[in-house]
Amino acid sequence: MELRARLQAATKDAMKAKDSARLSTLRLIGAAVKDREIASRGGDGDGELTEADLILILSRMVKQRQESAKAYEEGGRLELAAKEEEEILVIQEFLPRQMSEAETRAAVDSAISDLEATGIRDMGRVMAALKDRHAGQMDFGAVGGLVKGRLLG
User: Fold this and answer.
1) Are 105 and 147 in contact (CB under 8 A)?
2) Neighbours of 20 (CB within 10 A)
3) 135 or 90: which leads in pLDDT
4) Which of 22, 33, 92, 109 might form a disulfide with 14, Cβ 3.0–4.6 angstroms?
5) Is the pLDDT score of 109 beyond 70?
6) Which residue has the higher pLDDT, 46 or 31?
7) At what angle do helices 140-152 and 123-133 cross, to 10 degrees?
8) Any idea which of 51-60, 109-118, 134-143 has the lowest mean pLDDT?
9) What single string gives the DSSP state of each residue in the chain?
């Protein structure tokens, strides 16, 4: 089942189950998708989003909530941090499985060898290739350091 259909089915199920916390998060996802569709219609786009676009939207939503949860924890607002963590769990249900550390290292090595990257100047190309191949499957903030280390070392 494609991601958009899974999101719609989950929203209906949450409504039927009267699960307000889950429904709220699913509606936030729906709103983010709609906003992106409207924005893409403005240019040359037709407003249709690909699976990769949807995964990117969800990945950004997770990252935003992780940053918010951290800020809330630092500010002593543990109830708000817990709410952000609950939203993260709901959003992650629709993302591809995260790669393990070993799989991430193998993917980085593969991208570097495929692109014949030899130095730090190639870092942008390697990161772009990883984002194309593994969108939503790895933390690109952490992967950047790994790529840099491989290219320098």
Assistant:
1) no
2) 10
3) 90
4) 22
5) yes
6) 31
7) 140
8) 134-143
9) --HHHHHHHHHHHHHHHT-HHHHHHHHHHHHHHHHHHHHHHHTT--SPPPHHHHHHHHHHHHHHHHHHHHHHHHTT-HHHHHHHHHHHHHHHTTSPPPPPHHHHHHHHHHHHHHTT--SGGGHHHHHHHHHHHSTTTS-HHHHHHHHHHHHH-
Q: How far apart are CA 58 and CA 133, in angstroms?
A: 16
AA letter at 120: I
Q: Cβ distance 136 to 59 under 8 Å?
A: yes
pTM score, two decimals? 0.74
Please name the residue that has the structure tokens 């609950």.
86
pLDDT tens column, 13-38: 999 999 999 999 999 999 999 999 88
C-alpha angle 78-67-41 in degrees, rounded to nearest 5: 130
Contact 129, 104 (CB under 8 A): no
Domains along the chain? 3-92 (1.10.1510.10), 101-152 (1.10.10.410)
